[in-house]
Write a structure and sequence with these properties.
With 132 residues, this protein is mostly helical. The chain contains eight helices and no strands. The longest helix is centred in the C-terminal third of the chain and has 22 residues.
Length: 132
């Protein structure tokens, strides 16, 4: 496992304070990107619950933030992989609805998406030579 995934798992296990999906994706990379915890908490405060409107998944959005922080301004691979894995869905409401149809519960589903996004972002950054 990587230090980024380990940190995301640690954050998702904390009940109070609650780290939303976007914060849980960005915080593991914060130090390497030159951001403080407080900055990330503010930047990503409204990412949970699909940007608080059941729209774009906050975990996916958090991954886009990390990619941008490291100079990846063409997230085509990121989107492609996620669409392939999730029946083309990138919105929170769609992802949660499909998870429910399959008998899944919300928290484990969201945790899994956070972990998936952290791993995918790390993979893309490593391939691009952006991480040590």
């Amino acid at each position: 496992m990587s230090k980024y995934l380990d940190k995301a798992k640690e954050l998702r296990a904390i009940v109070v304070p609650h780290y939303n999906c976007g914060q849980s994706v960005v915080l593991p990379f914060a130090e390497d990107a030159g951001l403080t915890k407080e900055q990330v908490m503010g930047i990503c405060a409204n990412f949970g619950g699909g940007l608080k409107r059941a729209s774009a998944c906050g975990a996916i959005t958090g991954g886009l933030v990390v990619l941008g922080l490291f100079g990846i301004d063409n997230p085509a691979e990121y989107y492609q992989v996620l669409r392939e894995r999730h029946e083309g869905m990138l919105d929170c409401a769609d992802l949660l609805r499909r998870n429910k149809e399959l008998g899944g519960e919300r928290k484990p589903h969201c945790d899994a998406l956070v972990f998936e996004c952290v791993q995918l972002v790390e993979e893309i950054l490593r391939k691009a030579g952006k991480l040590g």
